[in-house]
Design brief:
The chain is mainly α. The chain contains four helices and no strands. Helix 1 crosses helix 2 and helix 2 crosses helix 4. The longest helix is centred in the first third of the chain and has 19 residues. The termini are far apart.
């Protein structure tokens, strides 16, 4: 059983680790920025967007149905990341 101060310290360490990963991983950043965890189809989009960021793709055309959060990831989270 952890004391209250140990719990607070553990929470802070986890938040610091998540913040460090958010700089390198769009999925982690997006979860924090958008407020929801990415689904499997979001992870596919995130992978493609990360390829754009690394310069592996010059052009990306996203064809997903309405309501699939393509704008949330492609127009909100990705440019801010």
């Amino acid at each position: 059983m952890l004391t209250e101060s140990e719990e607070i310290e553990l929470i802070q360490l986890l938040e610091d680790e998540k913040a460090a990963r958010a700089g390198n991983e769009l999925a982690v950043y997006s979860e924090t920025a958008l407020g929801f965890a990415p689904a499997e189809h979001h992870l596919l989009l995130i992978d493609a967007l990360e390829q754009v960021a690394r310069g592996e793709l010059d052009v990306l055309i996203v064809c997903m149905p309405p309501g699939s959060a393509k704008s949330s990831y492609g127009s909100v989270a990705f440019p801010a990341w």
